[in-house]
Amino acid sequence: MKAIGFRQSLPITETDSFIEFDTDKPVPSGRQLLVKIAAASVNPVDYKVRRNSAKDQPLPAPKIIGWDAYGVVEAVGDTASLFQPGDAVYYAGDIRKPGSNAEYQLVDERIVGKAPQRLSPAEAAAIPLTALTAWELLFDRMGIGERDKGKTILIIGGAGGVGSIAIQLAKKIAGLTVIATASRPESAEWCRKMGADVVVDHANLVEAVRAAGFQNIDFIVDLVDLIRYWEPMAELIVPQGRIGSISDPAEGVDIRKLKGKSVSFHWELMFTRASFETPDMQAQHEILTKVAALLDEGTLLPTLTETLPGLTAANFKKAHQQLESGRTIGKIVVQY
């Protein structure tokens, strides 16, 4: 099969930052599915892994990354029971395993969902990682539920991939008043399209939120930079409120800032369930099933903003360059 990968962690502008190569088509076993991939999206985790996996010396074999895919099941392992050949599926995969930047991929059926029927392959491929991340963060980690309807949430980084879904889930499923951050007119407009009630500039976050009429916020999620926004979040959060984050701080923060208000803090990493094969690993299959239904009924909107045609190194280079700029709105997909 054809695949796109890398042997060294190089700047994306370098010729060999991605290479095209042929490798053996994998064979499923156990609960694995063999999926023929039709489209894959890119996420910040992609370029972080590309930058850091082979900094010191070249890898013996090219590393295939990519953690978002839409495809069709071609074969199943001997104990698989949730899917059969011919099923159209979507999933975000397992960071420990070869990724979706290839013609075929093996994936555990417990972290796979049947794809939404009303979406195109590219639109479906843009959803899994961000939807799982946002759903787990809001509902599994922070515990937002029916009793919280009408409360406020501040989403820092509303126009990105996770923010685009988090706004929709917070507004349409949780019934919260959503304040999202954006710094450009086009990203602010995107947040409003996704359902944000209010959009503020994150440059002076405390002042912007209070100028918008909110003294304190019930829930805050950081999707950008925990260190940069730690002090503003500690200031804005309501007593006994909840803060969640997915960002990767290079250094620690003073969690004592939250003690006076008895505020709880929640990490979310979408790969935790698959990486540790937790007893509730199949929750991701269930989440993706629910999200597909919400997309098919029109409750949730697709977040795709750009499609690059062709399984080529050039397309993944282009997608990574755009992500690394930090100015991407919604999701970018490479369609095979």
TrEMBL record:
Residues 14-334 form the Enoyl reductase (ER) domain. Gene3D superfamilies: Medium-chain alcohol dehydrogenases, catalytic domain (3.90.180.10), NAD(P)-binding Rossmann-like Domain (3.40.50.720). Keywords: Cytoplasm, Metal-binding, NADP, Oxidoreductase, RNA-binding, Zinc. The keyword Metal-binding applies. It is found in: Cytoplasm. Belongs to the zinc-containing alcohol dehydrogenase family. Quinone oxidoreductase subfamily. Homotetramer. This is Zinc-type alcohol dehydrogenase-like protein. It comes from Chitinophaga caseinilytica.
